[in-house]
Amino acid sequence: MDERVVPQQRRLVTEVPGPRSRELMARRHAALPTGVGATLPVFAARAQGGIVEDVDGNRFVDFAAGIAVTTVGSSAPRVVEAVSDQLSAFTHTCFQVTPYESYVAVCEALNRLTPGDHEKRSFLVNSGAEAVENAVKVARYSTGRSAVVAFDHGFHGRTLLGMTLTGKVMPYKQGFGPFAPEVYRAPYSYPYRGTGDLPATLSMLEKTVGASNIACVVVEPIAGEGGFIVPAPGWLQGLAAWCSDHGILLVADEVQTGFGRTGAWFACEHEGVVPDIVATAKGLGGGLPIGGVTARATVIDSVHPGGLGGTFGGNPLACAAALAVIDTIESDGLIERAKQIGATMLPRLRALQASYPAVGDVRGRGAMVAIEIIDPTGAPDAARTATIASACHTEGLLVLTAGSYGNVLRFLPPLVIGDDLLDDGLSVLEKVFTSQPW
Ligand SMILES: *Cc1c(COP(=O)(O)O)cnc(C)c1O
Q: Full-prediction pTM beyond 0.85?
């Protein structure tokens, strides 16, 4: 049997977590701070396709994809081949010291694939937070303004500016202030909870910040960590139009929604919105750390030489991976596959909603879907959400929670997951609902 092939079947051979995972967890607790969280109490040994296998031999159906990273699957064949080839050629030169072609090719691909046919420029960084930070740097430089608007339910990373832009205090900001100055928060459109009326938001921003002081608006086209909130139709477009009327740059944080996840290359496309700057990361590298900043040439070219960059940004291994990811999405029709995954999941989740009043909302686009869990009064039920997630884990289904109120179960399967596994994962979720003490 080929050791590298992970059978695409859920399998539980020990309790969860098993003995080997418990041993490693004890070492982890002794060596790491508690501040670094853990969703699943097991340690990974192998992962491929729609399965994560743990060190005890248990196999979990993967509805998380490492938080929307392994869109093309973990250790995807083209990624493994491209990175292996690069590994034996060279591992690092620093692009600003000795450039290499793959970095340029990733930037060309970003310029080609991000929304809009205007002239664009891209550069590469190491993470989503770094991409967002750089987008703000560029926006401030090119507008000469300092104010930045971010939204309720937004998540933009864990660096100082990233957490400042992030809407949720616990756990991301609690005790970590003071925060970066000149960041203003506005209500996000949240149709299920009836908040985020756009005209009121814009008029509030004009009165409290002043449109002419705002460099950029940083927005997720679908709020990810905030709970897979799809804004009301037209909201993003209205925001983009207002930005354009006032010389404000629209920064789309497509870190979680990008690279096919929502059934389009980028989620802005669903709304026909063309951002001035796009921040990417997560799915771009197929598991290797890489982020991108793509901006209008007229906006970004003003920055002086040496103003942008970094030691590791666009590392050659990560660039090789990113090119293989883009090739895989294009060659294997994964954008279409993301739509199919959504079309399979949404009806099953809506059926759950019809049977269980605790399922308040079902929403999402493509392979980025979620359910919001409420108590009998309609209030967010974080405790029940955590119980359901942990019951799924025990049954061999890897799911994540999200949401400003912690009451969203979100599903982000790798786009290469097979129909059988997708069906099996949904059956586990249905079984967990049936066995809850309602
Ligand atoms: C994950 C995420 C980030 C931060 O990315 P890191 O690579 O963890 O720094 C930023 N924005 C969004 C929308 C994200 O989902």
A: yes
